């Protein structure tokens, strides 16, 4: 007999996972169909990790409203779900009269949006806040912050799962049909899934899913941003993100501290139509370093440890003008389908308010019964390195696996890797372990621990060497033996 879901969510990024989590507050049978092998392989794991204040978006837009709400609630969410969030503030640094005028306008816009804690500061105060910065004055946003985007997304997904949502990885939706009773059938490589409600939270795939639902005509372009990650040595030199004065459409190349003490530089914004290429050309890295050095001259090549990039799905009109978030139900074309289009920045900040907005649309059409068993709390894997000596000793006594360090750079223990391998979502890739523990994220980028972690996956999950994958489907760590005993 075919299984019928109340809701199938297409896309398990931060937005799809926030929707799954918020919907699990109700008595709904929920499934998440994700084409990748984990929840943060696309945009949700490829961004600046900044919790925006909400001042940069047009007053009255969903981007402004949901961002301000997401910013206000991030502290409580981080406590409930046990992910790292630091309300460190942020500065937008200027030096010309024109910059000053833009910053004054930004403050007026921010206040109209409901963002609080915005002030103009002089050079003295700016250099007290960020001694190494170059600039004459700044707008200081007290309430901006930084978040660990991986654990934030994973936490939402794990909490949704603990409250009953099913996660299906490697389940790309390739076709959608609706029968005479209004039941949707979603085709994936592993079978057809049936549901009363569909949610399109497919990020870069939003246009394609929208087309499958019959809601045609959305034009989505990609804006690709590259980044350089710097060694933790640089972390103490940057207590908060430093941005230039923004233009109307682009926040500019900034330097951002991360919740784990690195610094990231970027992003540029190149228009792209290929949503699968994440390479970072050398000339882009040079450009990022040169631009960012004008604001924060602490950038040295010897501190580069990795690069990465992300692609924003921007919904544009026929004239190429960037549009607001679109969150809609088109009762005339696709009843009981919640269609999210153009969820670009500040989608990370706004994910939970986006989810609540989407559920609000659903509740206008169907009575939702509260789930009496909903538990908003999720605990992550404790970070051994961040515990006190006493706590560390106690843990080693309880479990000797805490006494063996596997990743030397980030001091991740065997017990943490084991907890990650046995994660609740059943993710079994190297990147899955990396994002859950920070192993392989340090200076040596896995040179020391990678092979040991691959071996632990083999042993714990009973996999052959050739079955261990790095991140994406088919990204095998090993293809066979170079030499073999006969
Ligand atoms: C360079 C950059 C910097 C950014 N910086 C910030 C920031 O500092 N602060 C902030 O608030 N926001 C920021 N953002 C925006 C933020 O990252 C995104 O808005 C957010 O991650 C979007 O989440 P999502 O879940 O919609 O998308 P995604 O994370 O892309 O998730 C969509 C998921 O859908 C899956 N999918 C797609 N098609 C299908 C299909 N057919 N079947 C099944 N699954 C499918 C994908 O595999 C993917 O996992 C930034 C983005 C970029 C690119």
How would you briefly describe this protein structure?
The protein has 486 residues and is an alpha+beta fold. It has helices at residues 14-23, 62-81, 97-113, 123-129, 149-162, 206-213, 282-293, 347-363, 389-398, 414-421, 430-437, 450-461, and strands spanning 4-10, 30-33, 50-51, 85-86, 90-94, 118-122, 137-141, 145-147, 166-168, 175-178, 184-188, 191-200, 219-230, 242-244, 254-257, 263-266, 270-272, 304-316, 326-329, 337-341, 405-407, 412-413.
Tag the structure with descriptive keywords.
alpha+beta, 8-stranded mixed β-sheet, 5-stranded antiparallel β-sheet, binds flavin-adenine dinucleotide
Write the layout of secondary structure elements.
Elements: E1 4-10, H1 14-23, E2 30-33, E3 50-51, H2 62-81, E4 85-86, E5 90-94, H3 97-113, E6 118-122, H4 123-129, E7 137-141, E8 145-147, H5 149-162, E9 166-168, E10 175-178, E11 184-188, E12 191-200, H6 206-213, E13 219-230, E14 242-244, E15 254-257, E16 263-266, E17 270-272, H7 282-293, E18 304-316, E19 326-329, E20 337-341, H8 347-363, H9 389-398, E21 405-407, E22 412-413, H10 414-421, H11 430-437, H12 450-461
Parallel strand pairs: 1-2, 1-12, 2-9, 5-14, 12-20
Antiparallel strand pairs: 3-8, 4-8, 5-7, 6-7, 10-11, 11-12, 13-16, 13-17, 13-18, 15-16, 19-20, 21-22
This protein binds flavin-adenine dinucleotide.
> Which parts are unreliable, with pLDDT below 50 for 5 consecutive residues or more?
none
Dominant shape: globular
Gap between N and C termini:
50 Å
Strand content: 15-25%
Largest sheet: 8 strands, mixed
The helix content is: 25-40%
Give a count of the beta strands, DSSP E runs of length 2 or more: 22
- Would you tell me the structural class of the helices and strands? alpha+beta
pLDDT averaged residue by residue: 97
**Gyration radius, to the nearest Å?**
23 Å
SS summary, helix count = 12
């Amino acid at each position: 007999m075919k299984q019928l879901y109340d809701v199938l969510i297409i896309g398990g990024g931060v937005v799809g996972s926030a929707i799954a989590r918020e919907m699990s507050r109700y008595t709904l049978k929920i499934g998440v169909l994700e084409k990748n092998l984990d929840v943060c392989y696309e945009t949700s794991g490829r961004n600046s990790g900044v919790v925006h204040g909400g001042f940069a978006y047009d007053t009255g837009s969903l981007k402004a409203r949901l961002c301000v709400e997401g910013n206000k609630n991030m502290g409580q969410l981080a406590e409930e779900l046990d992910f790292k969030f630091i309300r460190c503030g942020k500065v937008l640094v200027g030096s010309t009269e024109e910059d000053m005028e833009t910053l004054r306008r930004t403050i007026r816009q921010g206040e109209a949006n409901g963002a609080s804690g915005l002030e103009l500061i002089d050079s003295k105060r700016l250099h007290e806040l960020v001694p190494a910065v170059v600039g004459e004055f700044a707008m200081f946003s007290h309430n901006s912050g930084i978040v660990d985007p991986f654990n934030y997304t994973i936490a939402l997904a794990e909490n949704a799962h603990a409250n009953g949502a099913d996660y299906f990885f490697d389940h790309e939706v390739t076709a959608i049909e609706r029968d005479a009773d209004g039941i949707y059938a979603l085709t994936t490589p592993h079978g057809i899934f049936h549901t009363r409600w569909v949610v399109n939270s497919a990020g870069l795939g939003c246009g394609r899913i929208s087309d499958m639902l019959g809601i045609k005509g959305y034009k989505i372009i990609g804006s690709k941003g590259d980044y350089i990650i710097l060694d933790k040595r640089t972390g103490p030199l940057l207590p908060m993100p430093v941005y230039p004065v923004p233009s109307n459409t682009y926040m500019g190349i900034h330097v951002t501290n991360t919740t784990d003490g690195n610094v990231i530089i970027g992003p540029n914004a190149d228009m792209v139509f290929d949503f699968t290429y994440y390479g970072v050309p050398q000339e882009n890295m040079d450009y990022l370093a040169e631009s960012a050095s004008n604001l924060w001259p602490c950038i040295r090549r010897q501190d580069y440890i990795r690069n990465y990039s992300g692609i924003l799905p921007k919904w544009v009109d026929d004239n190429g003008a960037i549009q607001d978030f679109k969150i809609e139900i088109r009762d005339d074309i696709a009843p009981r389908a919640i269609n999210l289009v153009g969820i670009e920045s500040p989608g990370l900040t706004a994910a939970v308010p986006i989810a609540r907005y989407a559920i609000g649309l659903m509740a206008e059409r169907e009575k939702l019964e509260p789930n009496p068993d909903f538990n908003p709390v999720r605990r992550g894997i404790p970070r051994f390195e961040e515990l006190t000596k006493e706590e560390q000793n106690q843990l080693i006594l309880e479990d000797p696996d805490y006494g063996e360090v596997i990743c030397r750079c980030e001091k991740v223990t065997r017990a943490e890797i084991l907890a990650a391998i046995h994660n609740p979502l059943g993710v079994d890739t190297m990147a899955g372990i990396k994002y859950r523990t920070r192993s392989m994220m340090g200076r040596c980028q896995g040179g020391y621990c990678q092979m040991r972690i691959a071996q632990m996956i083999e042993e714990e999950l009973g996999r052959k060497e050739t079955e261990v994958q790095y991140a994406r489907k088919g990204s095998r760590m090993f293809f066979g033996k170079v030499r073999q005993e006969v």
